[in-house]
Amino acid sequence: MGTTLKAKRLAPSAAPAATIRKPRSVSVPDRLVLYGRAAGHCSFRGCPVSLVQHHLEQTSGNFGETAHIWAFSVDGPRGDEDGRPEDPDTLENLILLCPICHKLVDRHPARYPVAELIQHRAEHEARVRQAVGVNIEHKALVLTLSAKVSDQSNAIPIADIQDALRPRYVCGEAFSIAHEMGPDESPEAIRVAALHVSRQLDAALALFERHGAPPIAVFGIAPIPLLIHLGTKLGNKRESLLFQLHRVGGWTWKTDGDPVMFKPIVKLRDGRKDHVALLVNVSGRNGIERLPESYGDATVYELAPADREPDRFLIRRKEDIESFRRAYAEAIAEIRRAHDDPAEVGLFPAVPIPFAIAIGTELLPKADPALVVHDWRKDKFLLVMKVNT
Ligand SMILES: [Zn+2]
What we know:
- It is a single chain.
- This protein has about 400 residues and is of the alpha/beta class.
- The chain has helices spanning about 1-15, 30-35, 100-105, 115-130, 160-165, 185-210, 225-235, 320-340, 355-360, and strands at about 65-70, 95, 140-145, 170-180, 215-220, 240, 265-270, 270-280, 300-305, 345-350, 370-375, 380-385.
- Strand 3 (about 140-145), helix 5 (about 160-165) and strand 4 (about 170-180) form a beta-alpha-beta unit.
- The structure holds zinc ion.
- Zinc ion binds near residues 44, 47 and 101.
- Zinc ion binds near residues 42, 47, 49, 97 and 101.
């Protein structure tokens, strides 16, 4: 009996499938997840409003709005942008906002397109994860090295480090190595710095050891040979994330522009089989004529970008580091093959900071040759130190 009644009641409202409109409803679990991810705060960039208590009376309550990134209706704000999900009420289409920010973004959809809102949400959620510090898998240990002739401050602001790590990582335990280089960057001064850096790095690695195996993010401002030395000490057992200070935009890797590829090493001169020099020309170009006399009879190779001239600002993307690591590892392997595992290779680097560190991390201790690291000074190369001995 009851069944018949129900069926009868339903019958008049049963419209053809095409005109059925899904009611607006965000599921309770989704709503909870959204509030949790946003820690109950407005996700709009820079808006500090708590959505779980009134800003004056401090009384508890729900003052938040689950805003649609693509509007619920195609005619609504951003509703006609590409990529609109079939179900507009799913989590990925929602952003938790205060009523004022909600109005703002819906009244000015051109100023706040989909990508912009997704970015606001990502930044906010990353900040929340960082604040509560529970996302251990995405924590990076941070190592800063600053060793320059001190005519300016080389401290790297923590905000810059956090920006550079986002959105993949948050800043975990940090360790700073600062070394006063004194009045010059003479080879002696750099060797003294290397000893200091080694001791400090041992302490840093011991500290990091207690934090499991997150990658180590390295931010360095130091002479190139010192960074190569740092790389050999870090090794490649643990993943390292490398950064550099860009001309604009701090330490954050760019996502635009063409990736830089490297060509296999080119032999610039055939010389002695047991005496080898490697010019690494990435940030600038050094030729055979710049080699010290002691390399007058050496076989000389060059590692350089494939289709572009070396340039100080060539490197923009973090993928460029991976390309370089591969090309450099292949270069060392090729030299080992062609020269029957030479005891040492003269290294003449013109490289950006992260590549200098990678030159060190990629060397296989004992198996790979020692590098006799030179540094270009004004008008000549000076021998600074040997690494991987
Ligand atoms: Zn807001």
